[in-house]
From TrEMBL:
Cellular component annotations (GO), alphabetically ordered: cytoplasm
Listed name of the protein: MROH1 protein
UniProt xrefs under Gene3D superfamilies: Leucine-rich Repeat Variant
Gene giving rise to this polypeptide: Mroh1_0
Pfam families associated with the record: HEAT_MROH2B_C
Taxonomic superkingdom: Eukaryota
Source organism of this protein record: Ramphastos sulfuratus
Limits of the Maestro/Maestro-like HEAT-repeats domain: 56-302
Amino acid sequence: AMARHAGPRLPLIVKNLLPSLSSIFDSQRVTTTAFFAQLLSSNVVNDLILMETMMDSMTGRQKDTCTLVRMLALRGLGNIASGAPEKVRKHGAKLLASMVNGMDDKDDPHNLVALEAMSSLSKLLDHLEQRDIQSMLLHIAIRIRPFFDSEQPDLRRSSIVLFGNLTKFSEGHGEVFLEQILNGLVTLLLHLQDPRPEVVKACKFALRMCGPNMGCEGLCEMFLNHLREDRSLHYGEFMNNVCKHLMQSYPEMLNRLISTNLFYFKSSWVDIRAAAPMFIGFLVLHVDEDHCQQVDLDPLISGE
C-alpha cells in the first residue's frame, strides 16, 4: 500500500529505518528486513533511486545471527526479479553468489534459508545472464540434489522446480549436466508417486525440462506428452515405456539405476516403496541379454 500511495515519502522512511538493520534486537532487524524485502518487489524503489541502497542492505544481512533475517534478506533479493528485472542482469553475479551462500547456510537446522534461496533463485533465473549462471551450474545442481528426498514437501518441491529451471542453462555443459540429470532421474520418476500433489507437479515439470537434454527422442516425447500438468498418469504403463527407452539408449546404466532404486525400498512413503521394485522389474524386462549378465542379483534378491 505504501509503494502504491506513499511513494514520495519512502526515501525518508527507508533512511530512518536503515539503522534498525543493525539493531541489537532481533525483532527490529526482522521487521525492517521484512519491510525492505517486500518493498523490493515494487518498481517504485527503482523510480526513487532506492534500489542499490536496499539491495546492499539485504546483501549485508546474510551473515545475521538470526535465521529469519537471513531468510527475509534472500526473499528481498529474489523480489528484485519482479521489482527491477533489469537490475538482475546488472548485478547477476552478486545475486547468484547470495543465493548459493544461502543454500550452503550451515546454521539453518530447518533449512528455511536454503528453501528461500532455492525459491528466489528460480525467480531470478529468467533475468540472469547465461555466463553468470553457467559458472555455478554444477555446484547448484549437486547442492540441491539431497533436497529431492527431504521430509519437508516445500523443500522437495522447490529443489525439483529449481533443477528443472537449471536445465535451460545446460548448453555448453552437455555431457557434464547430462550426468546430473541421470543422477537425479530415478528420484524424479519415483516422486511422480509422491504423496504431495505439488511435488508430483514439480517432478512433471522437471522431467519435461530434462527430456530434450537426454539424447533420446522417444523419452523426450513421452515426458512432454504424458507429464502435462492437466493430464492424469497411468504410472505402471508409463514406467514400462520409460524403461524400454532407457534400456535402448542407456543399457550400460542398468546397475546404477537398479542400485538407486534399491535405496528406495526403505522409503518412508509407501507409494514410492512400491514404485521402486516395479521400476527395477521393468528395467530387467527390457534390457538385452548381454547387459543382463552384469546385474548383481544378491542385493536385488535380499532387497537391500
